[in-house]
Specification:
single chain, alpha/beta, Rossmann fold, five-stranded parallel beta sheet, two-stranded antiparallel sheet
Amino acid sequence: MKTAIVYSSTTGNTEQLANAIKEAAPDAYFSTADVADPSEVLSAELILLGSPAMGAEQLEDSMEEFFSGIEGQISGKTIGLFGSYDWGDGQMLSDWGERVKAAGANLKGIAKAQLAPDSQALEDAKALLN
């Protein structure tokens, strides 16, 4: 199965989740959101997207720009989300999941970490591949 992993990270926490997934799927297309190729991502059978929560529970700017650019083209795709947050319960990831579903995609799951990912969060992120 062709997999694409695209993420943004500001403190390295979401990057740790992305790297854990990449280790489990070494042949996956792997990129940061600011330079990701939308056509490469949209050609994947499984798309995994990661972002930290910013401001008032928003996607990081480069991921918001990337996701907004493909949002109208993800109907029928299988998408998993991962990310990190500092406060609350990571509502941004749940809100993002609702956007994915509203765009007609199949939400495979959400893996989240409060601040630095612990071993469970890393395993949850890798489980998005299954």
